[in-house]
Write a structure and sequence with these properties.
Helix content is about 0%, strand content about 45%. The chain is mostly beta strands. It folds into 2 domains: about 160 residues, Sandwich (Immunoglobulin-like), CATH 2.60.40; about 120 residues, Immunoglobulin-like. The strands form 6 sheets. Strands 2, 4, 8, 9, 11 and 12 form a 6-stranded mixed beta sheet that branches. Strands 13-14-21-18-19 form a 5-stranded antiparallel beta sheet, with no helix packed on it. About 30% of the residues are buried.
């Protein structure tokens, strides 16, 4: 009787292991230095200049993911407008900004909804060996241009929280994933600035006293509140040239008046008015108003004068 030989064969599948190819936070770390790039003082007046600050983006590919050879990243604004602005301060939209690579000038900043799939941004290259982590860095420049349009801004800190979109490529050039994450926060500080447009000194002229009120418009530009320190050399009195100085001036040689600045009364001893309304980047006027109690009578003929000193500073 013949024997039946049963042969059992084990079939094995032979495979090739390779590192993870994902382009996500666990396989590609992203860091920014500084994480909060800040422009400490941007002047929004037309005479101001562009301000810049840099941040370095570093991508680190861990060991074992050597298939990822290149990547590029963009930074994405929270707003979909194509005009990118650094946040908002109350009702005031922030200053315009743009972000480019420091080397080459490639655009890195884009509106909300943009991904790295169809944009270039900042580019990175990694070593072919997977025996150790591979890092690649690119420095970007955040630019806030001069406010040539004279748009209005109030003093304060404007802040924009950016996100990033990251695209990786494997050794054969094919796309390997796209991921997003938290990017840097850009801060721009608009200081409390004040400039006086009206050149001094100015003359308030009652002429031959045919009117009891005279107004001087003082033109200002400011990003914040305004303080005004105001005093009169003769205590709110116009004194006849050559007459005895106050307080011994004869009644027939002086003409008293009342004074307001920005609709607030200025007493004869002077005053400091604080936190007057801002004039804005485009500018506006504050009124100095001098008012006589009536048309002068019983006064000696001649020229009457007083010196009013107004010191204007930025408020708190």
């Amino acid at each position: 009787m013949g024997k039946l030989l049963r042969l059992t064969m084990a079939l094995a599948t032979v495979g090739w292991a390779q590192g993870a190819l994902a382009c996500n936070s666990s396989d590609m770390s992203v860091s920014f230095s500084p994480a909060t790039p800040s422009i400490p003082s941007w002047n929004p007046f037309p005479a101001g200049t562009a301000q810049t600050v840099t941040s370095t983006i570093t991508l680190t590919r861990p060991a074992g993911t050597n298939a990822i050879r290149t990547a590029h990243i963009i930074l994405v604004d929270s707003n979909a407008s194509t005009t990118l602005r650094v946040g908002q301060n109350g009702a005031f939209a922030g200053p315009i900004y743009n972000i480019t690579t420091t080397s080459g000038g490639a655009t890195v900043s884009f509106p909300s909804g943009t991904t790295a799939t169809n944009t270039i941004g900042a580019s990175f290259a990694f070593a072919s060996s997977s025996s150790s982590p591979s890092s690649s860095s690119a420095t970007v420049t955040i630019t806030v241009p001069a406010n040539t349009a004279a748009s209005d801004f109030t003093s304060g800190i404007y802040s924009e929280n950016l996100t990033y979109s990251l695209q990786c490529y494997v050794s054969n050039g094919n796309v390997e994933g796209n991921t997003t994450g938290t990017g840097p926060t850009v801060n721009v500080t608009v200081p409390n600035l004040l400039t006086v447009v009206t050149a001094g000194p100015q003359t308030v002229n009652f002429g031959s006293f045919t009117t009891t009120s005279q107004n001087l418009a003082i033109s200002l530009k400011s990003t914040g509140a305004i303080n005004a320190s105001i005093s009169s050399a003769n205590g709110n009195k116009m004194v006849l040239a050559g007459a005895v100085a106050p307080p011994n001036t004869p009644t027939n040689s002086m003409i008293a008046y009342t004074m307001t600045f920005d609709s607030q009364t200025v007493p004869s001893g002077g005053t400091t008015l604080t936190n007057l309304a801002r004039s804005g980047v485009g500018g506006s006027s504050k009124s100095l108003v001098l008012t006589l109690p009536g048309l002068p009578t019983g006064k000696l003929a001649g020229t009457y004068s007083d010196t009013i000193t107004i010191t204007l500073t930025a408020g708190s």
